[in-house]
Design a protein that fits this description.
Elements (H helix, E strand, L loop, with lengths): L9 H26 L3 H4 L7 H32 L21 H9 L3 H8 L5 H6 L5 H4 L7 H10 L14 H19 L2 H26 L5 H9 L9 H14 L6 H7 L7 H34 L11 H12 L6 H34 L9 H17 L7 H11 L4 H31 L6 H23 L5 E2 L2 E2 L2 H15 L1 H12 L4 H4 L3 E2 L13 E2 L3 H8 L11
Parallel strand pairs: 3-4
Antiparallel strand pairs: 1-2
């Protein structure tokens, strides 16, 4: 909202939510439940599009690698908050390089200005030369703002140890290595004990953040200047609706926050009982997800308003996005809260850890489920799932060490931009909707779902799958391509070879959709009808099931139901 017209951002947000977010979420969850398989095997419903399952498996693998790095940052900030001294990002440390100057020191300078200098300071048109000529001190600090806050320096120099670019990765940041290890051990421990225990853990990790959000909101709205931040958050600027970037951000926010296009939701749906009401789950999940985003916005902007008041600047001068919001702006604001700053800091980062763990559970479980469903005959040994999860965690940890080097932030940003967001997710979501709507038949799928759920499913869903969702994906993708700019971090512009690497990462997932279709075409000897004939289980057949279809593993039943089409080996790609 901070850069997209404040409250007016909710218009494209909710349009995208109802036109694409909810329909695709229901499609993904119901697909996993209907096929009783994760995303890879679930696309037996339209074999021509099994490449979608391969693509999402790769996407969620990429996501597992870099998303947990963000959790490791939060882990480090959490135990840095557990100190008897001042928060380490609240003051200028001797090891910091550059012109460090804290907000309290800045405010002290302002408080000691003479009346004449105060007038000049409050006049935004005053230059540093005019300030100096009037005999006022520290024009470089007060007028030019030529300094860095200790929170920013702590983030870049202490936490990241940021180098000058990708060509200089530097050594490992050992405090982040330890944090990454802690994060992976926590994820592994919660998953490897089994889905029933993991479900109990998720109750804690999912609900506790709401307790902390409520505490932080109550504290936020009691701070001086908070309402300026909330006003900035909610005040609409309707001129922004004509800017494509606002719609792009809305679409990206919806797909990312709802975990769409990464194969995780079909994997979660595959564990539901066949008659479970996943339509109800879809609506509840969508409502909770959106309410959480809005509530978190109130918490953050209330604190930003307070920080802006303390610094004597407008809210838009402290508002930022990306990692800087969670690891620079909010820590800086919390450090100004006096004696309770350590308590609220620990609460905030513990909340981030729990929220991140929830997403990581889903991603890791989704990946292992897809791999095991893709090659079931190789995973029939005892304790297969815990062993696979352990191997995934160990492998991911060692690969992730690249991203906790001093130049690791540059790699994280490449992975975030090219592997599991933006154009890649839009591409996958487009083909998911198109595959069900045109490959299988949107109305046919609707009737199957009604037979499975035992309730009427609104025709709104297939209408979106047929037209609205694909059009939104095309529109947002076209705008993103048209306005594409090379990746940057601060003042650093990524070299051409890294851009090529990023596009290769994107292509490694997107190419799987046409490649999968080509493999199926070869497998079925150019019989395109077989490519669109679903492979289902007997329990999925109902009175209204449309032909043709094939029954998994029963050739006699295949012959009886579909005549000419005989199922052979359907466990291979």
């Amino acid at each position: 909202c901070y850069k997209n017209g404040g409250g007016v951002f909710f218009i494209p947000y909710f349009i995208t939510l109802f036109a694409a977010g909810i329909p695709v979420l229901f499609l993904e969850i119901s697909l996993g439940q209907f096929m009783s398989r994760s995303d890879f095997a679930a696309w037996d419903i339209v074999p021509a599009f099994k490449g979608i399952g391969v693509a999402t498996t790769i996407i969620v693998w990429y996501l597992n690698l870099y998303y947990i790095i963000v959790i490791s940052w939060a882990v480090y900030y959490f135990y840095s908050s557990l100190t008897l001294d001042d928060l380490p990002w609240s003051y200028c440390q001797g090891s910091f390089k550059g012109n460090c100057f804290s907000v309290p020191a800045f405010n002290k300078l302002v408080a000691n200005l003479t009346d004449n200098c105060t007038v000049l300071f409050n006049d935004k048109s005053t230059t540093s030369a005019e300030f100096n000529s009037a005999g006022c001190p520290s024009a470089d600090i007060l007028i030019d703002r030529d300094f860095q806050d200790p929170a920013e320096m702590f983030w870049e120099q202490k936490v990241l140890g940021l180098t000058d670019g990708l060509d200089e990765l530097g050594g490992l940041q050992w405090h982040l290595v330890l944090s990454l290890l802690v994060a992976w051990v926590a994820v592994w421990a919660c998953i490897v004990v089994g889905i029933r225990v993991t479900g109990k853990v998720v109750y804690v990790t999912a609900l506790f953040p709401y307790v902390m959000l409520t505490v932080l909101l109550i504290r936020g709205v009691t701070l001086d200047g908070c309402w300026e931040g909330i006003k900035f958050y909610m005040k609409p600027d309707f001129s922004k609706l004509s800017e494509g970037g606002v719609w792009l951000d809305a679409g990206t926010q919806i797909f990312w926050s709802m975990s769409l296009g990464i194969g995780a939701m079909p994997a979660m749906g595959s564990w539901n009982k066949y008659r479970h009401n996943c339509l109800r789950d879809t609506l509840i999940y969508s409502a909770v997800n959106s309410c959480t985003s809005i509530l978190a916005g109130f918490c953050l902007f209330a604190v930003m308003g307070y920080m802006a008041k303390q610094m004597g600047v407008s809210v838009d001068e402290v508002a930022t996005g990306g990692p800087g919001l969670a690891f620079v702006v909010y820590p800086k604001a919390v450090s100004l809260m006096g004696g309770a700053s350590k308590f609220y800091s620990a609460l905030f980062f513990l909340m981030l850890i729990f929220l991140g763990m929830d997403s990581e559970f889903v991603a890791v479980e989704g990946f292992t489920a897809q791999v095991m469903d893709a090659f079931p005959k190789y995973f029939k040994f005892p304790f297969a799932r815990p062993i696979v999860t352990t191997l995934v965690a160990i492998t991911s940890f060692f690969i992730g060490l690249l991203m906790v080097t001093k130049g690791g932030m540059y790699i994280v940003q490449i992975m975030d931009f090219y592997s599991a967001s933006g154009l890649v997710l839009l591409f996958i979501v487009f083909w998911e909707a198109a595959a069900i709507a045109y490959g299988y038949g949107g109305m046919r799928y609707l009737r199957d779902l009604e037979a499975m759920l035992g309730v009427a499913v609104p025709v709104y869903f297939p209408c979106c799958w047929y037209v609205v969702t694909p059009l939104i994906c095309v529109f947002i993708s076209a705008y993103q391509i048209q306005t594409f700019e090379p990746l940057t971090y601060g003042g650093y512009t990524y070299p051409d070879w890294s851009e090529a690497l990023g596009w290769a990462i994107s292509a490694s997932t997107c190419i799987m959709v046409p490649l999968g279709a080509a493999v199926q075409l070869h497998r079925y000897k150019d019989d395109t009808r077989l490519m669109t004939t679903p492979i289902i289980d007997p329990h999925q057949v109902h009175e209204g099931t449309e032909e043709p279809y094939r029954i998994r593993g029963d050739e006699s039943l295949n012959n009886r139901l579909t005549g000419k089409y005989v199922l052979r080996d359907v466990t291979e790609f």
